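Closing statement on the FE2/S2 (inorganic) cluster sub-project.
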Amino acid sequence: MPVTLTINGHSTDAAPGGGSLFDHAERLGVHVPTSCRKNGKCKECIVEVTEGMSLLSPPTDHERHLKGSFRLSCQTHLAADEGAVHCHTMRRGQMRIENRAVGLPLRGTAALDPCVTRADGDRILLDGVEIARSTEPIHGLAMDIGTTTVVIRLINLETGELIADASFENPQRFGGSDVMSRIHYDTTIGQFLLQRTLAGYLTHAIESFPVDPRTIYEVVVVGNSTMRDIFFRQDVYPIGQTPYRSITEIEMAEGKRATTSLTQTAAKSLLPIHPKARVYGAPIISGHLGADAAACMLAVGLAHEEQLVAIMDIGTNTELIVGNKDRILAASCPAGPAFEGGAISCGMPGLDGAIEDVSIDDATGTFRFNVIGGTAPEGICGSGLVDLMSELLRTGRMNEFGRFEDGQERIAIDPTRGIHFFESDVNELAQAKGANVAGLHVVFHTMGVPFDAIDVFYLAGGFGRHLKVDASKRVGLIPNLPSEKIVQVGNAAIEGACIALLSRAKRQELEDLVKRVEHCRLETHPQFFDFFVEGCQFKPVESSSVAPVEG
Ligand code: FES
């Protein structure tokens, strides 16, 4: 009886001697990234094995960098005659990725003024210097490299038109799911494996765009400090050690560079675009406040903003920026993975099968929920968890300290599928929320204004886009502001990257903006612990709870 081998949902019968998992994938029409001759050298062909690991050949020397359920598909063969093997490439299908922004102020758009221009019909100039001859259209790429997801946009630099876009789960997951794990992986395993793997996926995305990749002459990259620096092959060790600084920040402080932005050639980035193309990594703000947060400031037009605005991107590391054209404060809040479903017994990312909103029937007390993709529920994603806690609070089944009624330890959400919510899960979420709320208090306290002085509160990022505002206010994840002040903008970072790609003036504005930001380091604020403890409670976060600093 042959083994049933399933790769990315495509199945075949297979037997030992029938080639590697890579060979089977090719026969099934599944694309596996590679830039070697399937000989274990490029390390890009990683698959995650979710079933049947014991039916596979033992890891080879080429796989020493991989742990757990990850294998190199070109090195892995079937070693059993029957059973089932399930694996997938590092692209998990159907992840809900936020690749758009909405509700941004119009001043975020700029006159078309890219660094790459055309002269005399066929001369392609980068900063006025000829780099190519072509009559084909001129293209550029904007990229947002997140720890979890990657978004790319292809733009015609002569018209500003969006030609195509792509988004996928960051394949660097084999190096851990958070920035600290990636830093550890990159600094201990080395060999630029994380960057090379991502470059393989980016190459596949770029080659699937409907233009000749050699007509792409510039790339603007944003991302958190770790993702950006890994992409640019910088030493990320210092970002993982207190006081958490990018090597570019350290070099700037030492007078070795004038900006934290980075540039390199397309060849060094391993991208299949024009070899003389420039890859520009937008500047970071400070520490874990990265180029993505900087790009958000550009997208909302903070440099020209008269009103007081806040930008909050809730994630494993929540970024918070508060200010206007006169003063800007920012903080990075180490919330951890709870709101992305990590460390929660029934948690999962925003993939198909995730419960994304929850309500409790007042008459019967039963749960109602919607599941992403309309499939059977497998777990609960971040926005679903916020909804669930809001409903438990509303119906009195959980108190503001996160304790369940009648001393229960768990609440059955869908017992037939084993989906339960534990008090221990609430504790994880309380701590994540505590970090975010402490960040809010510290920044507003330092600014010397109460929460309700804010004119616009932008909730950025994929998680912020899908949150229910009322539920978020009830559990105290965001300040208890009038809902009309809260704007869920989605992926403002990719929008900022596009603006920087299309306008030299805006790119300079971005370079200037990051230098004006005052970084509030939470851990050094004298009231941090008090704010954190208050933030762990599930109750509305009120402006009155912040005492403005005198003077
Ligand atoms: S294809 Fe290059 S290591 Fe497997």
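The mean pLDDT is 90. With this model delivered, the sub-project is considered complete and its resources will be redirected to Aim 3.
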